[in-house]
């Protein structure tokens, strides 16, 4: 057996699915409404192990819709041994590709299975990805959207003081506002730390060219999602007009296979990777390896839930592909260098 698939002999006994609703963050409220929904999956093994993982019902899905898809996927998993994890992932990935179930259903189940396998061996997940791992990974911070651009200055200072190696600005849907925020953030980072910009796929070519010129002036580390994910022609067009690295392929369906096809066009310099969009730790790890094989860099994204953020930290550390994105509060307590939890599994214990 491949070393990273090793585990103790145990069987998946039952899987419970729950629902969560909470007020949306300002960014997501603007895009999808006042509430965010999530589904939690709790897997119990015959040997007494337990893992509970939560995944946000992204891009307008409700918890009811995602929950039903997870229940269907869980029905194909119950009763199977943990030693069949790789085969389980293949089965569910096929369902994503051929039956169009949400990749998020695959992701939450996959992360739970990694958690259980690592628990069964008394190891952290990162140690399964790399048995020799003993390190930490740097983190960059995702900036909150601010009402007035100067408000970003104290936030950037606090993040830099906390050790974050860079900050990413998210579009507020107003390019004049974004431009002012980027300039303020860049001024505060003049003593060190990188700047990146996420346009959330909402620009036309002229707008993207204008923002690329600004980012080039500010020596930005990357320009994320200027266009829709699979508008390859637009990315190729912009690629020929800027030296700022283009990051994308975050939300494309299809897992590592489609990432390989997208990278083969030459339109992207960096691949956005996170365990929630890429089919769990298995899919995220495969995507990192695909990008590495093709000579592309990796941008570790946030995971949209605490458990998925932890999964990304394990991937980033185990595969040495950081820094990893975190979404700290405006007054962060989180340090900009993170180490995967040294406790077993993913590092969270179910209540």
From TrEMBL:
SUPFAM superfamilies per UniProt: Enolase C-terminal domain-like, Enolase N-terminal domain-like
Superkingdom of origin: Bacteria
Residue ranges annotated for the Mandelate racemase/muconate lactonizing enzyme C-terminal domain, each copy included: 149-245
Originating species: Phytoactinopolyspora alkaliphila
UniProt name for this protein: Mandelate racemase/muconate lactonizing enzyme C-terminal domain-containing protein
Pfam families: MR_MLE_C, MR_MLE_N
Coiled-coil ranges from the UniProt annotation: none
């Amino acid at each position: 057996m491949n070393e990273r698939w090793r585990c103790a002999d145990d069987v998946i006994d039952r899987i419970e699915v729950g629902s969560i609703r909470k007020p949306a963050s300002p960014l997501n409220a603007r895009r999808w409404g006042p509430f965010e929904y999530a589904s939690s999956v709790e897997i119990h093994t015959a040997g007494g192990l337990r893992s509970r993982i939560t995944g946000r019902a992204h891009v307008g899905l409700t918890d009811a819709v995602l929950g039903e898809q997870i229940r269907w996927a869980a029905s194909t998993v119950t009763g199977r041994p943990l030693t069949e994890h790789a085969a389980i992932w293949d089965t569910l990935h096929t369902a994503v590709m051929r039956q169009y179930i949400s990749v998020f259903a695959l992701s939450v189940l996959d992360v739970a299975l990694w958690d259980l396998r690592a628990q069964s061996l008394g190891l952290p997940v990162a140690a399964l990805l790399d048995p020799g791992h003993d390190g930490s990974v740097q983190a960059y911070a995702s900036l909150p959207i601010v009402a007035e651009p100067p408000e970003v200055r104290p936030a950037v200072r606090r993040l830099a003081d906390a050790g974050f190696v860079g900050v990413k600005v998210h579009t507020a849907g107003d390019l004049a506002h974004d431009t002012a925020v980027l300039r303020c953030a860049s001024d505060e980072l003049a003593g060190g730390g990188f700047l990146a910009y996420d346009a959330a796929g909402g620009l036309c070519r002229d707008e993207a060219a204008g923002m690329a010129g600004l980012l080039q002036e500010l020596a930005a580390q990357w320009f994320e999602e200027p266009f829709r994910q699979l508008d390859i022609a637009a990315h190729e067009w912009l690629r020929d007009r800027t030296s700022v690295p283009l990051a994308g392929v975050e939300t494309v369906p299809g897992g590592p296979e489609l990432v390989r096809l997208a990278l083969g066009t030459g339109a992207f310099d960096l691949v956005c990777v996170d365990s929630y969009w890429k089919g769990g730790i298995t899919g995220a790890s495969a995507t990192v390896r695909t990008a590495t094989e093709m000579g592309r860099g990796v941008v570790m994204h946030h995971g949209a839930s605490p458990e998925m953020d932890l999964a990304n930290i394990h991937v980033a550390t185990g595969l040495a592909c950081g820094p990893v994105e975190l979404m700290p509060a405006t007054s962060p307590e989180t340090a900009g260098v993170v180490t995967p939890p040294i406790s077993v599994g993913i590092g969270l214990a179910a209540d």
